[in-house]
Design brief:
Number of helices: 11
Number of domains: 2
Strand content: 25-35%
Radius of gyration: 22 Å
Structural class: alpha/beta
CATH class of the largest domain: Alpha Beta
Bound molecules: flavin-adenine dinucleotide
Amino acid sequence: MKHRIVVLGAGYAGAFAAGSLARRLSPADTEITVVNAVPDFVERMRLHQLAIGQDLAFRKLTDIFAGTGVRLRLARVTGVDPERRTVAVTGEDGDGELAYDTLLYALGSSVAHHDVPGVAEYAFDVTGRSSALRLRERLADLGEGATVLVVGEGLTGIETATEFAESRPDLSVALAARGELGAWLSPRARRHLRRSFDRFGITAHEHTRIEAVEPTRAIAADGTSVPADVTVWSAGFAVHPIAAASGLEVAETGQIVVDRTMRSVSHPDVYAAGDCAYAIGENGRPLPMSCASAGFTNMQATAAIIARLTGGEVPSVGLKYYGNHISLGRRDAIFQMVDAEVRSKSWFLGGRTAARLKSGVLKGAGWSIAHPTFGMPKRKRRLATAPSRAGLRVAA
Ligand SMILES: Cc1cc2nc3c(=O)[nH]c(=O)nc-3n(C[C@H](O)[C@H](O)[C@H](O)COP(=O)(O)OP(=O)(O)OC[C@H]3O[C@@H](n4cnc5c(N)ncnc54)[C@H](O)[C@@H]3O)c2cc1C
C-alpha cells in the first residue's frame, strides 16, 4: 500500500512540485499522480507572444516526467471531495475518480471578467492557451490600421500591449488604464514606460474605466466610446470555483486559505500552491498571483509534504516578493524592485539588459520544470512510518 500523492495542475507550481516530490521521495512507498487538462506544459508567461503570432513550442508533459515515476492523468478536474479524499475528473476515458492521501492543489487561474457586460461574449484574453489561440486567429485576420484595445494597466496588460505593438506595427494598439499609466512604478520607471509607449505608438487612455464591451468598441464609465475591432480583457486573474465548491476554506477571492507551510487550514491532507493559494508573505500581505509566488509556494508545499511524510522538521522557504519584471516587447523591459510594503523602490533596471534578464528568467523557469531529474539525489527518502491511508494526519 503506497501513500498516494495527487497533484492537480501541471503549470509552474504543479509541474515543478511533482518533479520535486518524485526526485526526493522513494517510489517504494509513494505514488505521485499529476492531473492536467492539456498534454503540454504551457508557459503562461509567454501567452501574449503566442497570441500575436510568435511560434512557441511547449514541451509534452509525458517527456518531462519520463523516467521520474510520476504518473500523468490527462483529464479535467471537476470537483474535489476533501472528506472522502477523492478528486472527480473527466477526460477522453470518460468520468472518473482518483483517491488521494495527500493532495496538492495547483489549478492556477484564468481571466477575471468582473461581470462587466459584453466581456464574456466579445472580449479576448491571453490567460490560457485556448483563449490565446482564439485571439491569435482573430488578430491574424486584422488588416492595417485595425484597432486593438487592451483593457488593464497591470503587468499582463502592459506586456500584451507592447508585445502586440512591436510585433504588429500595422495595428493601432491602445491600452485603457483606470488610473495613470504605470502609477505604481517609481517615477523613473514610469518615464521609461511612457517612452516605450510613445516609441511603439500605443495610445494610453488613462483614467478610463471600461464598463461595457461591444463587438467593435468599448464603453467607459463616463460614456466615452473607445474604438476596438478587438478588445483584449486583461483586468486581472480569477481562480476556478472548484476549491470553493469543495468545502475547503477559501478567501473572498476563492483561493485556498493555507498556513505558512501551504497546508489548507481546514483540511490538513490538502496543500495549495501557485495562483490558487491564499498565502501570506513575510510582509503580512497575500502573495500576488505570479510565477515567483508559484515558485515559493510550491517549494514550501513540497518541503512540508516531504518533511511530514519522512519525519523531518518542516523547513521554512522564504516568501518574500522582490519586484516586478515587465517585458516591453522582446528588446525592452522594466525590472522594478519593491519594498516590504510592496511600494516601488527608486531603483529600477530598464532597457535591453532588463529584457535579457527577463528572457533568462523565462528560460530558467521552463528549463527547471523540464528537467525534474536534474540534481536527483542518489538515495531517495523513505516514509517515516509504514505508508498509511491515514496520511499526513499521523505524521504531522
Ligand atoms: C500573458 C501572461 C504573462 C505573465 N507574465 C508574468 C510575468 O512576467 N511574471 C510573473 O511572475 N507572472 C506572470 N504571469 C502570471 C503567471 O503566469 C501565473 O501567476 C502562473 O502561471 C501561476 O502558476 P500556477 O502553476 O499557479 O498556474 P498555471 O501556470 O496557470 O497552471 C495551472 C495548470 O492547471 C491546469 N488546469 C487548470 N484547470 C484545470 C482543471 N480543471 N483540470 C485539470 N487541469 C487544470 C492548467 O492546464 C495548467 O496546466 C503572466 C500571466 C500571463 C497570462
